[in-house]
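Milestone 3.1: sequence recovery, worked example.
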């Protein structure tokens, strides 16, 4: 039975063990088109990296758990996510509870709140980590994050290899280094990293979006070891394009199509 009133979950998970969202550069389209809710027009920003605003934060929980967000993802009240009326989707922001100076990073993937002058709606887990879930609201500072700059500061070896393509049917087909010996077919490369942890974080995100095999493979380039994140093998270019569209709709970027002969 669907929950009629919003509220906290019956199972109180230890949110201190839930990591903050990790800012990952976005290579696909942002969702930032004008829209109308409750008779009011909203014109989202096209770039949220320099966003900074103080105001009231609220949170949402069981009523929306498992439902689609405005980004097309499923809302998880234990995820480190947020809803905002005008930030482009997705955007990463740091939220500071000004009453206790606790800070978290969340991924904005939804729209709202629309029923008040509150500036952001956090997931239940995010509000719990900031220490205001029981009170319902808090006065916060919300600051946009540049994922590339964040990665360069926190992970100096970060490297993004995959580049977006204009359309799936014109995806570049490039040679695949012979590291998957004995395997042939089509693969989708989503990114490449100097840091193995960053590659694994992306692999885990992809596994929550697609049912295809997702793996990390290493190769050498200019005396460096890079960690590629790939999907596959897939049976045909048509299947590869369907996966590309799935990733695009989930705002996971547009991967590069590669082939092994």
């Amino acid at each position: 039975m669907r929950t009629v009133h919003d509220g906290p979950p019956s199972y109180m998970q230890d949110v201190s063990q839930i990591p903050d969202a990790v800012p990952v550069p976005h290579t696909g389209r942002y969702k930032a088109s004008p829209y109308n809710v409750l008779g009011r027009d909203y014109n989202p920003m096209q770039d949220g990296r320099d966003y900074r605003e103080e105001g009231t934060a609220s949170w949402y929980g069981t009523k929306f758990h498992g439902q689609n967000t405005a980004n097309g993802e499923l809302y998880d009240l234990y995820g480190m996510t947020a809803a905002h009326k005008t930030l482009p989707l997705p955007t990463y922001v740091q939220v500071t509870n000004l009453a206790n100076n606790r800070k978290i990073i969340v991924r904005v993937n939804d729209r709202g709140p629309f029923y008040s002058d509150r500036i952001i709606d956090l997931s239940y887990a995010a509000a719990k980590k900031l220490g205001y879930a029981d009170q319902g609201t808090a006065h916060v500072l919300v600051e946009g994050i540049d994922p590339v700059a964040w990665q360069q500061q926190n992970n100096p070896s970060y490297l993004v290899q995959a580049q977006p393509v204009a359309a799936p049917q014109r995806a570049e087909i490039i040679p695949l280094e012979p590291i998957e010996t004995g395997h042939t077919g089509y693969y989708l490369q989503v990114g490449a990293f100097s840091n193995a942890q960053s590659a694994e974080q992306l692999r885990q995100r992809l596994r929550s979006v697609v049912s295809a095999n997702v793996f990390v493979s290493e190769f050498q380039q200019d005396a460096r070891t890079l960690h590629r994140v790939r999907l596959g093998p897939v049976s045909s270019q048509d299947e590869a394009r369907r996966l590309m569209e799935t990733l695009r709709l989930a705002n996971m970027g547009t991967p590069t199509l590669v082939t092994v002969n």
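The chain has two domains: 15-146, 155-260. The helical segments are 124-130, 147-154, 196-207, 237-249.
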